[in-house]
């Protein structure tokens, strides 16, 4: 009998879980961030960032496929022993908790700014926490179903970006590589926050039904994320001038304000409300994986109490500190620094170490 038969996920759920974790609030400011670093050549940085994310993803899969039925906690204990293994798991637990909390705060700030300006932050987070708990407490399978359903519910959103694209000016992209490759390379790390999320494959692999398709699935997930970011970025670059896009903090939202119909004036409000579903597929897995780590560290089967505690901690911190946009951006910068290590540096190092470990173990057993 399979170890996680009750919580197995399909290949589609695996793809949409990874894609949902990657696509969060970062896309709303991404075109401006890329324009600051590389001008209208920033879209090239996205392609380079996608390449590195796919390479790091493959290293993750090649590492965990050596131990197909073990979670990351069990793999780290096997490779490094209890003390070091648990220490690394604690790092991942704190990372996902902070990552999920930051996305929650971002979603809260958007809702507060656009819909509920007089509602206290902690009340909005409390409302977010109810569906988060109901989904996250039920494990990977329910998270996978939610991510898949959410993808089908919002896949129509990119179509509306074609409306302002009709008035775009493609001359904004010329000449290519205006200032050479240096600004493009310099902008690549800024795409890290947008592509972060594929590291959840460390936790998803034991639950995947058809593990032979894991590499294909994570590559498709990264590619879907890249295509969405690339499309939105190109539309923003084509519509706004190279200098004009720098005037907007979230140019994607300003672009959506331009979409009007005779029967509906503020279409951007409806679109943003639906986009909240997309954002929820990013914070819910992060909350779950943080509590999954904590429950395994404490040897508990039921992680539900851990979900409640983590959500209460986030709500309490928001009530106490009342974060602003600037503080949220600082937190995102911290996540990028940590994510670059845990998502891009750790996988190849862990793969190399596990390869050496298995070689040595086989030689000792001969």
Automatic annotation (TrEMBL):
<dbReference type="GO" id="GO:0016020">
    <property type="term" value="C:membrane"/>
</dbReference>
<keyword id="KW-0309">Germination</keyword>
<feature type="transmembrane region" description="Helical">
    <location>
        <begin position="185"/>
        <end position="208"/>
    </location>
</feature>
<keyword id="KW-0812">Transmembrane</keyword>
<protein>
    <submittedName>
        <fullName>Endospore germination permease</fullName>
    </submittedName>
</protein>
<feature type="transmembrane region" description="Helical">
    <location>
        <begin position="122"/>
        <end position="140"/>
    </location>
</feature>
<feature type="transmembrane region" description="Helical">
    <location>
        <begin position="12"/>
        <end position="30"/>
    </location>
</feature>
<feature type="transmembrane region" description="Helical">
    <location>
        <begin position="149"/>
        <end position="165"/>
    </location>
</feature>
<feature type="transmembrane region" description="Helical">
    <location>
        <begin position="334"/>
        <end position="356"/>
    </location>
</feature>
<dbReference type="InterPro" id="IPR004761">
    <property type="entry name" value="Spore_GerAB"/>
</dbReference>
<feature type="transmembrane region" description="Helical">
    <location>
        <begin position="272"/>
        <end position="293"/>
    </location>
</feature>
<keyword id="KW-1133">Transmembrane helix</keyword>
<dbReference type="Pfam" id="PF03845">
    <property type="entry name" value="Spore_permease"/>
</dbReference>
<feature type="transmembrane region" description="Helical">
    <location>
        <begin position="42"/>
        <end position="62"/>
    </location>
</feature>
<keyword id="KW-0813">Transport</keyword>
<feature type="transmembrane region" description="Helical">
    <location>
        <begin position="215"/>
        <end position="240"/>
    </location>
</feature>
<dbReference type="GO" id="GO:0009847">
    <property type="term" value="P:spore germination"/>
</dbReference>
<keyword id="KW-0472">Membrane</keyword>
<feature type="transmembrane region" description="Helical">
    <location>
        <begin position="83"/>
        <end position="102"/>
    </location>
</feature>
<feature type="transmembrane region" description="Helical">
    <location>
        <begin position="305"/>
        <end position="322"/>
    </location>
</feature>
<comment type="similarity">
    <text>Belongs to the amino acid-polyamine-organocation (APC) superfamily. Spore germination protein (SGP) (TC 2.A.3.9) family.</text>
</comment>
């Amino acid at each position: 009998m399979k170890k996680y038969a009750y919580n197995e996920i399909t290949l589609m759920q695996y793809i949409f879980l990874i894609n949902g974790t990657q696509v969060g609030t970062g896309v709303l400011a991404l075109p401006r961030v890329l324009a600051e670093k590389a001008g209208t050549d920033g879209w090239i940085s996205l392609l380079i960032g996608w390449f590195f994310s796919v390479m790091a993803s493959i290293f993750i899969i090649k590492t965990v496929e050596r131990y197909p039925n073990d979670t990351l906690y069990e793999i780290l204990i096997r490779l490094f022993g209890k003390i070091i293994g648990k220490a690394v798991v604690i790092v991942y637990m704190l990372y996902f908790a902070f990552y999920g909390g930051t996305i929650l705060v971002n979603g809260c700030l958007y809702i507060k700014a656009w819909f509920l300006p007089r509602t206290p932050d902690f009340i909005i987070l409390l409302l977010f926490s109810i569906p988060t708990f109901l989904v996250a407490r039920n494990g990977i399978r329910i998270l996978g179903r939610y991510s898949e359903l959410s993808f089908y519910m919002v896949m129509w959103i990119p179509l509306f970006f074609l409306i302002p694209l009709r008035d775009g000016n493609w001359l904004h992209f010329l000449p290519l590589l205006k200032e050479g490759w240096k600004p493009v390379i310099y902008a690549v790390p800024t795409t890290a926050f947008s592509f972060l999320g594929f590291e959840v494959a460390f936790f998803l692999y034991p639950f995947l039904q058809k593990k032979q398709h894991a590499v294909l699935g994570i590559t498709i997930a990264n590619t879907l994320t890249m295509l969405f970011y690339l499309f939105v970025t190109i539309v923003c670059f084509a519509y706004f001038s190279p200098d004009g896009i720098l005037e907007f903090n979230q140019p994607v939202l300003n672009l959506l304000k331009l979409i009007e119909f005779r029967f509906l004036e503020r279409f951007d409000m409806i679109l943003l409300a639906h986009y909240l579903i997309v954002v929820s597929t990013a914070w819910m897995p992060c909350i779950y994986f943080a509590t999954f780590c904590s429950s395994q560290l404490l040897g508990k089967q039921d992680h539900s109490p851990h979900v409640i505690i983590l959500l209460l901690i986030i709500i309490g911190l928001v009530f106490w500190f009342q974060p602003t946009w600037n503080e949220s951006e600082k937190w995102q910068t911290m996540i990028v620094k940590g994510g670059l290590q845990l998502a891009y540096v750790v996988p190849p190092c862990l793969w190399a170490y596990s390869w050496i470990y298995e070689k040595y173990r086989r030689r000792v057993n001969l």
